[in-house]
Structures are given as structure tokens and as C-alpha cells.
Amino acid sequence: MVPLRDEIAALDPATGEARWSIAGQHVHAAPLLTGGVSVIRVRNHDSTLVVLDGDGMTRWEADVAGSVAPPVGRADGSVMLASERWVEAFDADGTPRWRTSVGGFDVPPDENRAFTTQPIDLDGQRVIVGADAYDWLGFLMLDPASRSASRWPADSRLTVAPQSPLALRRHPSPLALAVPFHATLRLIGPRRRRGIVLGDRDLDGNASTAAIRVRDRSAGTCGRRLHRKP
């Protein structure tokens, strides 16, 4: 699935030929775990989340406040999306499920606070997402069940870079998250609200990319390796 300036096209991976295309400006596209694709269509400065089936037919659509990253499909068929103003979730049929601003579930958006990264689904309920709150830059853990939004990880002494954590995935929950700090790459187990630090590595520069090796649970960035603490 390739979003282009004037259309979005589904390409055959074997030939590169377009299977189908839809006219219009689309800025983000992502496959859904239950089949199909979710896209962001932009028209006259308005943004729409559109969920398509495998043939490009519209299942449902919803007006949204833009997007900072591609939508996220979840195992139950729901879809999450982060704009600068909101992180919001929709049921598999497009019904709004919940939404929150950086300030919290019952707090209107603040122009000085914005979400910055794609959300990461932890366990079908809790979500981690990057945020710029003017007086701090880091991540929030969102818990729609308790309608809480709290800074994550709890160690506030470290400055966090506004990049998405990378998940060592074991469905439905990640085993660990590689979190890029400005001068540290930290491996954090997300099982508790505050996070369990499994290991970290000081870096010469900013952590721009990272990868996690599943077998030994080590993570590397720019060729370096992050070892789990004994």
C-alpha cells in the first residue's frame, strides 16, 4: 500500500503493478491485523480516517484532527490514531471508543501540548505514545479502562527523545520496549505501570534507530548492542 500525492495504490509485491487505486491525497497508510488497510485522506485541510477492505472498498470512515503517524490496527479489529491533539480509538465498525489529549481523558487539547509518535498497543488496553508537553518531552502511558494518562517510564531524570519505542513483540503484548533517550538506549519491560528496566547503553549520539534480537533479548542501535542486566 503506497500513499501518493494524488492517489493511494495497492501494489502487487511480485510485479509492482497496481491492483487497485483510489484518487485523492493520502498521507498515511497501514495494514490491519484483521485484513484490509487504514489510510488518512486529506481534502481541503480536513483529514479523514478511512478503513478499506482488501479490494479497496470503504468499510467505514471518520473525521479526525490529522495524524502524526500511520494508524494502528489492533487484534480485535479496532483502530488507533494519534494526531497532535488526540489519541483516539475506533471499534471495528468505526464507532468511536475513546480519545484523550496529552492532558488526559477529560481534558480539552492544549495548543502547547501535542502527541508526537505512533501509539504502541501494550495489551489490548494500555497504550504508550510520545508527547511534547512544552515543559517536558517524553512518553505517556494511556489506560482507557481507568481513564488515566501518566508519564512513562517513571524515571523523570532522563530526557526522552520524541521517537516511538520499538517493541519486542509477543502477541498480544510486547516482551520489552527499546526506548530511545537522547544519550541512552534503554530496554524496558512494560508489565508494570512504571516499567521494569532490563538494561541500558550510553550512546555517543542520539538514538535514531534500534533493533532487538529475540533470542538473547539484546538490542542494538547503529551497530551497538544493549545487554540485558543480569
In short:
The protein has strands at 2-3, 7-11, 18-23, 25-31, 37-43, 46-52, 58-64, 72-73, 79-82, 87-90, 96-100, 114-115, 120-121, 127-132, 137-143, 148-152, 166-170, 173-180, 184-189, 196-202, 211-213, 218-220.
Note down, in words, how this protein is organized.
With 230 residues, the chain is mainly β. It folds into 2 domains: 118 residues, Beta Barrel (Thrombin, subunit H); 72 residues, no CATH class. It is 0% helix and 48% strand. It contains no helices and 22 strands. The strands form 6 sheets. Strands 12, 13, 14, 15 and 16 form a 5-stranded antiparallel sheet that branches. Strands 4-5-6-7 form a 4-stranded antiparallel sheet, with no helix packed on it. It has a 4-stranded antiparallel sheet with strand order 8-9-10-11, with no helix packed on it. Strand 15 and strand 16 form a beta hairpin. It is globular, with a radius of gyration of 18 Å.
Write the layout of secondary structure elements.
Blueprint lengths: L1 E2 L3 E5 L6 E6 L1 E7 L5 E7 L2 E7 L5 E7 L7 E2 L5 E4 L4 E4 L5 E5 L13 E2 L4 E2 L5 E6 L4 E7 L4 E5 L13 E5 L2 E8 L3 E6 L6 E7 L8 E3 L4 E3 L10
Antiparallel strand pairs: 1-2, 2-3, 4-5, 5-6, 6-7, 8-9, 9-10, 10-11, 12-14, 13-14, 14-15, 15-16, 17-18, 18-19, 19-20, 21-22
What sequence of helices (H) and strands (E) makes up the elements?
A: EEEEEEEEEEEEEEEEEEEEEE
Domain module count: 2
The CATH architecture category of the largest domain equals Beta Barrel
- Which class of secondary structure composition applies to the elements? mainly beta
Between the first and last Cα atoms, what is the distance in angstroms? Answer: 42 Å
Approximate strand percentage: over 45%
CATH fold category name of the largest domain = Thrombin, subunit H
CATH class label of the largest domain: Mainly Beta
